[in-house]
Design brief:
Transferase(Phosphotransferase), domain 1; WD40/YVTN_repeat-like_dom_sf; 29% strand; PQQ-binding-like beta-propeller repeat protein; 10 helices; Quinoprotein_ADH-like_sf; alpha+beta; 754 residues; elongated
């Protein structure tokens, strides 16, 4: 870890830099400035990647777009890319992204620690691992675009790539890319230097140049510095014509056939080879890094540990000769290694890092510092660090809360938001069944597998839910027992049910299809007796229950025309009497919301919010027209009514708060969320979290938390998508007591809000 400069930023969001990852004046600078940083409370350590150039709007957009794409790719197994866990807000003067910290050296720093080119075993392992990583990336249709030695980070577990899309950030396609900061000409394929779009075979050229540098330990070494077994394949990588270069897959196959296998270090105990190791993993066994690099990584880890504890470290490293024939004069500055036969004092610190606690694994080589004899001191650095990190602290401002627990769900994930049960239980509905979970721990409380749900369930707010299974069924969410089934309306029967409408008290209501006609039917779930049935003008998409008025919403198809009308039908929930039926112009594609008390129905229709009085034949109370966003109409997503306000997000993720009675805009607040492809889908429905004074919203990318009073963005939560998809699942959020329960694909997270 290198010292900070006087002009370095003091903060990146919630993180405080404690040092630089790259040495000053490196022969191959990185296109980003990279810092090691601690979170405000010291619980987390990350590497910050900040744009190295002067702020410019177009470059900032390119930098952020590349980081967002890297974030989307980060969940794909085997890519060996530094995960992007957090991004700066779009409005920040300097764009940055963060990745979890582990002891790593950029390739130039590893070369410096070694004092020259890396050994044959290391170069061969590096070649195979990077070829494998590029092969996985190219299979997704992406190119790395900016592979240089500075983009390769070495750790004891193998190399990772950082700085996806650096070529595109440095200069747009079509413009010559010469003398770009952090992108030396030696590593830029000829076609990209001329302004061509980064493509997979360009990555292969850059990989060949990186391997030449790793073997020679300097620029300009060329293939002559490579081990004999690598020279021929790397020479093909460096051919001017992209068509003559091998693909990453073909290159990996050739490298694996030619590569030697690592031998365990002399001091390591005998082990049994993992029969599951294949590909590059077989070359990355302990010992793949040379001793000097491993020792230098240990020194970095100790410096980071020391920076994470208030005050100065209570040990003084003693520079000693390295192991074997190497001499101390050739060791990297700041490297601390063991002396053969040296006797450690009582204060010898065994440094390590394993999951954020004491213990370091760095290429299979341990390291420790020998300190001077002195009287017994107070707590050691490691003890102070453990005490500091184990103490329970509040989440630093601006940082999403860490999940209290998380669970995997069956099938393709939840069909709808998590259902609140009793004080201790929540339920998740999937196509495999309904599962009850302990809200405090996430442990399974009960399971109901015989319902075969096909859509989201309707909770009644009192611990029961109407489930859309093979037939409508009412489920007790406290124990998973079925309280009632409508067996005569089983799907595939003579009078199958269509859409669930409402559940309140002992009454369950849904639609029935019979001879092409649609009817609303209500049952008493205690006796099983039919209460009433009322014909409807057409199929229903759902309903809103306001007091004793059931407003049935029409099903206008999957892609209704925004200007088409929609016919709403109001029924008395007690007896099914039709109270009114109104055709509302331009509402076919509307999103509807109702308040838990009162008779006002609110709709988002395109870029307008409208309110209707359900007691007065759907008389319009007010209308609010939204502003354009990026010179285009910005449609609203589904609204939410809470505390006398209507909350709604538009396509630009601008949160609006509108008075329910007045229709007056109380405030609106941009979310500081970047514009991505996800913005083209319907914005998410906000959910009020009263205990936290927050409004939450979840989409395909993240969960956003806004202050309920003013709309300031509080934090963003993003999880890793394990399997990439052309259409990633929308995240769903439910607030239960002091928890935000987020379903994301097949994962469920419980985020504490207080």
């Amino acid at each position: 870890m290198q010292p900070l400069r006087a002009d370095d930023p003091q903060h990146f969001g919630p993180y405080r830099p404690v040092g630089r990852l790259d040495a000053e004046g490196s022969e191959i600078p990185a296109p980003q400035v990279r810092f090691i940083a601690h979170s405000t409370g010291g619980e987390r350590t990350v590497v910050i990647f900040a744009d190295a150039s002067e702020p410019a709007p177009d470059r900032a957009l390119r930098f952020r777009a590349a980081a967002e794409q890297a974030q989307r790719l980060g969940g794909i197994p085997g890519l060996r890319m530094a995960p992007v866990t957090e991004l700066a807000a779009p409005g920040e003067p300097r764009q940055w992204w963060a990745s979890p910290y582990a002891p790593v050296h950029p390739l130039p720093a590893a070369v410096a620690a070694q004092g020259g080119g890396l050994p044959e075993l290391t170069v061969c392992a590096l070649a195979a691992a990077l070829a494998e990583a590029l092969g996985g990336l190219h299979a997704t249709g992406n190119a790395f675009g900016g592979l240089t030695p500075a983009a390769v980070l070495l750790s004891g577990e193998g190399p990772v790539l950082a700085g996806f899309g650096a070529v595109g950030v440095g200069g747009p396609d079509g413009a010559p890319r010469t003398e770009l900061a952090g992108l030396p000409a030696e590593f830029l394929p000829p076609e990209q230097a001329a302004g061509g779009r980064p493509r997979p075979l360009g990555d292969i050229y850059a990989l060949g140049a990186v391997l030449c540098y790793a073997a020679a330990g300097r620029l300009g070494g060329g293939p002559a510095a490579l081990p004999d077994r690598l020279r021929a394949p790397v020479e093909r990588c460096l051919r001017t014509d992209p068509a003559e270069r091998p693909t990453a897959e073909a290159l990996l196959s050739e490298l694996l056939r030619a590569a030697p296998r690592p031998q365990s270090p002399a001091h390591a105990p005998a082990t049994v080879a993992d029969p599951g190791s294949f590909g590059a993993a077989g070359l990355l066994a302990p010992g793949w890094l040379p001793r000097r690099v491993s020792a230098s990584l240990a020194g970095q880890a100790m410096a980071v540990l020391a920076a994470g504890v208030d005050g100065v470290p209570d040990f003084t490293p003693v520079p000693v000769a390295g192991p074997g024939p190497e001499t101390a004069s050739r060791a990297a500055a700041g490297t601390v290694v063991a002396t053969a036969g040296a006797k450690p004092s009582r204060r010898a610190l065994i440094a390590g890092l394993a999951g954020g606690t004491a213990g370091l694994v760095a290429g299979g080589a341990g390291a420790w510092a020998v300190t001077k004899e002195d009287p017994p001191p107070g707590p050691t650095l490691a003890e102070r660090l453990a005490e500091k990190t184990s103490a329970r602290k509040k989440t630093p401002p601006g940082m999403a809360p860490a999940p209290r627990w998380h669970q995997s769900m069956a099938g393709s994930g939840a069909l709808g938001p998590v259902l609140p049960g009793d004080d201790r239980t929540v339920a998740v509905v999937t196509r495999a069944g309904v599962t009850g979970l302990d809200a405090r721990t996430g442990e399974e409380a009960w399971r109901s597998d015989g319902l075969r749900p096909r859509a989201a369930a309707l909770p009644d707010g009192r611990g029961r839910a109407l489930v859309a299974g093979a037939e409508p069924a009412v489920l007790d969410l406290s124990d998973g027992k079925v309280a009632w089934r409508a067996a005569k309306h089983r799907r595939g029967g003579s009078a199958p049910y269509g859409t669930l409408l409402a559940l309140r008290g002992s009454s369950a209501c849904f639609t029935v299809e019979d001879g092409g006609k649609h009817t609303a039917v209500a049952y008493d779930i205690e006796s099983g007796r039919e209460l009433w049935r009322t014909p409807l003008p057409g199929p229903a998409a759902g309903a809103r229950l306001l007091g004793d008025v059931l407003v049935v919403l029409p099903d206008t198809g999957t892609k209704p025309a925004a200007k088409e009308p929609a016919t709403l039908t109001a029924l008395g929930f007690g007896d099914g009497t039709q109270m009114w039926s109104e055709e509302l112009a331009g509402m076919a594609a509307a999103h509807w919301a109702d308040s838990s008390s009162g008779r006002t129905l609110v709709a988002a229709a395109g870029s307008r919010l409208r309110a209707y009085d359900t007691d007065a034949d759907a008389e319009r109370l007010w209308e609010l027209a939204g502003k354009k966003w990026l010179e285009e109409d910005a449609p609203f997503g589904p609204p939410c009514i809470a505390g006398g306000l209507v909350y709604a997000l538009n396509r630009g993720r601008v949160l609006h708060a509108v008075g329910l009675r007045s229709g007056r805009l109380e405030w609106k607040q941009p979310s500081a969320v970047s514009v991505t492809e996800d913005m083209q889908v319907t914005p998410p429905r906000p959910v009020l979290a009263r205990s936290a004074g927050a409004v939450l919203a979840a989409d395909r990318s993240q969960v956003l938390a806004f202050e309920a009073d003013g709309g300031k963005l509080m934090w963003r939560f993003t999880d890793t998508v394990r399997r990439p998809s052309k259409k990633p699942p929308r995240r769903l959020v439910t607030v239960v007591s002091d928890l935000a329960l987020v379903s994301s694909g097949r994962r469920l997270y419980a985020l504490p809000l207080t």
